[in-house]
Amino acid sequence: MNNNILKTTSKIICIITSLCALALSLYRSYESISWYKDYSHACELNTQRNSLAPLFSPFTLWIGGGKIDLLVKMFYILLFINITLIVIYKLASSPKQEYKKIFILSGSVALFPIINLLCLFLFIPAIKPDSVYDIHYNVISTNHFCNTFYNHPLLYCLIYFLAFFVFCGLTGGLSFLFAKAFKNILFSVVPVFLLFVLFFEDKFEIIKYRINPITIFQSDVTFMEFIYSIIIEAIIIILFSLLLFFICTKNKINVKEGE
Amino acid sequence: MKKRILIFISIIVSAFYVVRLYTLNSKEHFPIILEYDNNQEVEFENDFFDYSEENMNGYSITLTNSELMTIDEFISNYAIQDKEIFHPFNYVCLLKVNVKNKSNKDEEKSGLNLKHFMLQSGAYMTYPNTDAFAYVNDIDFMQFSLRYNSDKDFIIPFLIYNGNVDINTFKKMSPQLVVSLFPHKKVIKI
Fold it and tell me: Alpha carbon B142 to chain centroid distance?
């Protein structure tokens, strides 16, 4: 396929998916702020019951805060689609691309959930979650980083963002290496395509809910719960990237400084 | 020139963001947590757990002693025959408290429900065990009211399972007894 057509098409779709992701992120912010306002108003009217204030905090109401619905699923699907589009666009613009740059650009999709959290901080007080209400958060004492969630919730979110950034970066890097190794830009869709095959796999729930990163990254709570799955998958991606890197080097394709 | 304008706009936006964060988080939206020490009398006043109908007004509680022991020590100390009911728990935290009715004359519509009390340590929290409560206090109810101007000692047992919390982490995270949640969360450090 002509690189110019690929470049223009990927650019347009990338802009559309980014705008859609941004719109979903902002819509969830608006919804969360409305929930908070309605609840505060109801609490002001009725002081005879526990307001459960820590449940209405940016740390629990942000888009990756644990409530998984259609909006959240669509949001994360769009982010993973964006990774491939970024790689296609960059390779179609100029084949002389560095792995490092692709890694950072792909990882930058992690900014979308951060925008949502930052918006919430402007309207909802940053109340710390309290473990006496743990049943509402799904973060119990057996979960990884549970003490961080209750004592330093912002750090808990930052760990998630960092992991999401690295994972998206690695996925983008793998897409880039696929395209390089097979000398065809369209091969860059393979890693994310495989993730989607797993995501829409209905036969084996274990694959969908405990292994697939698109599902696991849908909330910081599920990410912490299946953190070992993500670590193992990241290692597999790194090993696979090294293999492709080796193939590229053997075929005299320079992926460090551009072809 | 463009770069300078961008930097200027970023500084303005960041400043606005910080000011907004500061003003929003300095208002009285936060739950008020009051901490008390061992042997310090805690008055419930108008505080409650879920609903104001709990009516603990006029009552007070003092944590006089706390003890952490293994489940085997607990079973032998209290000569408990039916050991199976405490499976799979590994430890027991016994909190000796003194409850007083200092000023509540409405004995029928007030009182305490010890089932609501919680032992909290970092991310871990648990409720009292009703079976163990019956063994250590010789009574099988945890909701009661006291006569005006009287007091009574109770031992509140919290069972701990290693699978839920590591005992060293439990000790390290400064455990506390939660005696009310709203409008003030009152906790007694153990």
Answer: 15
